[in-house]
Amino acid sequence: MHYTIFDTPIINTLMRWFSVCVLRLCGWKVEGQKPSELKYVLIAAPHTSNWDFPYTMMICFALRLDVYWMGKASLFPPFFGAFSRWMGGIAVDRSRAGNLVEGTVNAFNDNQKLTVIVPPEGTRNKVTHWKTGFYYIAHGAGVPIALGYLDFKRKAGGIGKVFHTTGDIEKDMKVIQEFYAGISGKNPKQFNLDNTQT
Fold first, then answer.
1. Which of helix, strand or coil describes residue 181?
2. What pTM was estimated for this model as a whole?
3. Which residues pair with 123 in a beta bridge?
């Protein structure tokens, strides 16, 4: 995988302290801890605002995570795209979802340590159902899913439970739904949890 800000020693340390200070000044609490697993898919929800990205990054630094995140291809134009990749970004071509799953599974198989953030909603706009690519990536690679969250109502974010998929996607998605019930995004009306489909 490519070199990122999380691999840059001095800047990584500075960003961690900066993130901890900013979160405290904003009244936010960081909950949970870094998973003991070396490889896992980290889903980030709810995703309802542009504010989700900076808060997610600060929480990652606060928890000492080394992550890659998936973003739409338009976030990776010439010049700025290099910066996005250094920040841990992986450009996603939404028209090639199947190739994305396969490619990410291969990346997990080829690396001894890897954390990939996937927003299951796929967009900050309201959606009728979650995309299930994150599930098939985790199941195909045999890695667990960590449930990351931002609760703007409580001003708290972090990582909740970590679990392995069973292959029964309907059953596993219910576990995920139960975890996110009651968690409020920046724009809660755009978080469509009840209609999660498999």
1. coil
2. 0.88
3. none
Q: If we measure between CA atoms, which residue out of 88, 34, 42 comes closest to residue 65? A: 34
Higher confidence at residue 129 or residue 181? Answer: 181
Map residue 148 onto helix, strand or coil.
strand
- Residue 4 burial by Cβ neighbours in a 10 Å radius (0-12, 13-18, 19+): middle
- Mind listing the pLDDT tens digit for each residue in 120-147? 865 555 555 788 889 999 999 999 999 9
56 to 23, 25, 38: CA distances (angstroms): 11, 16, 19
Distance (Å) of CA 139 to CA 41, 62, 69, 170, 184: 10, 28, 18, 13, 27
CB 23 within 8 A of CB 51: no
**Residue 137 is inside which H or E element, if any?**
helix 133-141
SS3 (DSSP) at 118: strand
* pLDDT value at 7 more than 50: yes
User: pLDDT, tens digit, for every residue of 70-81?
Assistant: 877 777 888 888
* In the predicted structure, residue 195 carries a pLDDT above the cut 50: no
